[in-house]
Amino acid sequence: MRIGHGFDVHALVVGRKCIIGGVDIPHDKGLDGHSDADVLLHAICDALLGAVALGDIGKHFPPTDMRYKGIDSRQLLRHVVNLVREHGYVVGNIDATVMCEAPKLGPHTAAMCVHIAADCGVEVTQINVKATTTEKLGFTGRGEGIAAEAVCLLQPI
Ligand SMILES: Nc1ccn([C@@H]2O[C@H](COP(=O)(O)O)[C@@H](O)[C@H]2O)c(=O)n1
Ligand SMILES: C[C@@]1(CO)OP(=O)(O)OP(=O)(O)OC[C@H]1O
Description:
binds 2C-methyl-D-erythritol 2,4-cyclodiphosphate
């Protein structure tokens, strides 16, 4: 078994989509970044890469590389899952938390889990996504950005 942890933050700005866990969530602001800025999938990618000691997302998909401009982060996640498999592991389970005051994520977490499970090639019961506010404190509390944290366990093939 291997354990991994990931953390990511993206700024909330006007004129961008708010895509979290592959779900396009209606909101007056969206997440800024080189890719689609899916903060949750980035934290999960980092957890998976960490578990097999392969560095981090920026090492594999440099933000200076135009191939990744606006890319759907589900493509990045599928690539990372393939790397994990090449190193002899499959996803056991993933647990993640997204931190934001708004939008409300509760109505969307089930759809996020379906996307993540499909991209990881596992059952939806192996994936959990939670949401929390930070009680109006800090950059997430002020609505300046969204943070996400993920942990995973990998099982040897
Ligand atoms: N963006 C969010 C934040 C929270 N939720 C749900 O509300 C519950 C209570 O949040 P607290 O920060 O007050 O603990 C939380 O457990 C989530 O179910 C949400 O849907 N979207
Ligand atoms: C995902 C990548 C892809 O170029 O770009 P960003 O959307 O800026 O996201 P970040 O979480 O900063 O990770 C870096 C990059 O790998």
